[in-house]
């Protein structure tokens, strides 16, 4: 795995001082034309900020020595995702941090060691150059924290009104070590359900950042790379059955995917679910269910019961898992279902989310 040291996001004043090619304060259509203006944008913002030897070559593809990759494992993992979050900046994060984190985590929950990312940006004409620099710097900082490199990409500029400021697509490549095989179909009766901390923080932070509900809270997004936490978990328990990061649709969606794929019942104890009072209060006011709120730094893991205590201990010792908890167990019946034991002593079925509680959450 790469061990690049994280670099801080530079202040806007410093980023302006580094601008020795770009002559405009905003993005124009010329920056997506394929000509000199586009080359200057790529050189000045992306190549300089991402500081990747593969990207600096400015080829149409990135190239990697296969020997280095096969030394890490026997299977290649690849994922892609697009990010359209509104607003671009929110408490504790931004679209750049989100794009790197989301792609790294999608690789990691499959047991892969994330290595390389792509970055494609669709930019609305008129976007502030300072905003683009801040997003790129945030991506670099998060990539360094996760130990990955951004190695290739693409830039498109669309007419004003054809997009909402900035959309990002990232793809990721990683390597899965031999004998690591988590999968949503592998849950078995008797297994234990673990989560690495408070749920719903990202959804709550976005609601607050939009300012549409006149709510005041101090909740920050939980957006964070999870690959080093997951590697620590796999070191003590290579037999982890299932892992998934609970993003859109929340933990309810992940648990239903596990239950359906494994044809088991997953029983969750509401009293054991880590949930901040502020998130609970917001959900009560707005009529939202925290089980379906988006997260960007939470994983749900299904672990054989004999390894549960050791895995939980490792999770709680990691900065990304201090508030980890056992939230439930797997039983044989009723098949393909998720059942919540409520705070009031009853039980209810937890179905897949129908529709979307909060649009453009990531």
Task: Write a structural description.
The strands form 3 sheets. A 7-stranded mixed sheet has the order 8-10-7-11-9-12-13, sandwiched between helices. Strands 1-6-4-5 form a 4-stranded mixed sheet. It has a two-stranded antiparallel ribbon with strand order 2-3. With 362 residues, the protein is α+β, with helices and mostly antiparallel strands. It folds into 2 domains: 12-176, PurM-like, N-terminal domain (60s Ribosomal Protein L30, Chain: A, 2-Layer Sandwich), CATH 3.30.1330; 192-349, PurM-like C-terminal domain (Phosphoribosyl-aminoimidazole Synthetase, Chain A, domain 2), CATH 3.90.650.10. The longest helix is centred in the middle third of the chain and has 18 residues, at 129-146. It has helices spanning 12-17, 36-50, 53-56, 66-70, 95-108, 129-146, 201-210, 227-236, 250-262, 277-286, 308-316, and strands at residues 75-83, 89-90, 93-94, 113-124, 149-158, 166-176, 192-195, 242-245, 265-269, 299-303, 325-331, 337-341, 347-349. The two termini are 27 Å apart. The radius of gyration is 21 Å and the shape is globular. The protein has 11 helices and 13 strands.
């Amino acid at each position: 795995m790469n061990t690049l040291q994280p670099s801080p996001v530079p202040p806007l004043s410093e980023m302006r001082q580094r601008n020795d090619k770009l002559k405009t304060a905003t993005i124009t259509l010329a920056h997506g034309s394929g000509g000199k203006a586009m080359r200057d944008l790529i050189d000045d913002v992306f190549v300089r900020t991402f500081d990747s030897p593969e990207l600096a070559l400015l080829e149409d593809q990135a190239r990697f020595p296969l020997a280095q990759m096969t030394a890490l494992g026997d299977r290649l993992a690849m994922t892609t995702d697009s990010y359209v979050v509104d607003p671009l900046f929110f408490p504790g994060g931004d679209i750049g941090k989100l794009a790197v984190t989301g792609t790294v985590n999608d690789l990691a929950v499959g047991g892969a060691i994330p290595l390389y990312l792509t970055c494609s940006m669709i930019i609305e004409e008129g976007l502030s150059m300072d905003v683009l620099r801040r997003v790129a710097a945030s991506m670099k900082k998060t990539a360094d924290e996760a130990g990955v490199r951004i190695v290739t990409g693409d830039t498109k500029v669309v007419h004003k009104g054809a997009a909402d400021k900035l959309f990002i697509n990232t793809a990721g490549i990683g390597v899965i070590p031999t004998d690591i095989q988590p999968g949503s179909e592998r849950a078995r009766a008797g297994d234990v359900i673990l989560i690495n901390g408070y749920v719903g923080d990202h959804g709550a932070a976005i609601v607050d950042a939009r300012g549409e509900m006149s709510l005041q809270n101090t909740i920050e997004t939980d957006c964070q790379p999870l690959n080093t936490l997951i590697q620590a978990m796999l070191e003590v328990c290579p037999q982890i059955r299932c892992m998934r990061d609970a993003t859109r649709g929340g933990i309810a969606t992940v648990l239903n995917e596990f239950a359906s794929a494994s044809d088991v019942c997953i029983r969750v104890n509401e009293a054991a679910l880590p949930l901040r009072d502020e998130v609970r209060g917001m959900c009560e006011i707005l009529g939202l269910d925290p089980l379906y709120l988006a997260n960007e730094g939470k994983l749900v893991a299904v672990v054989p019961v004999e390894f549960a205590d050791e895995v939980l201990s490792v999770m709680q010792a990691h900065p990304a898992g201090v508030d980890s908890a056992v939230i439930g167990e797997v039983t044989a019946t009723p098949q393909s279902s998720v059942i919540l034991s409520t705070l009031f002593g009853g039980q209810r079925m937890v179905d897949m989310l129908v529709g979307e509680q909060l649009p453009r959450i990531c």
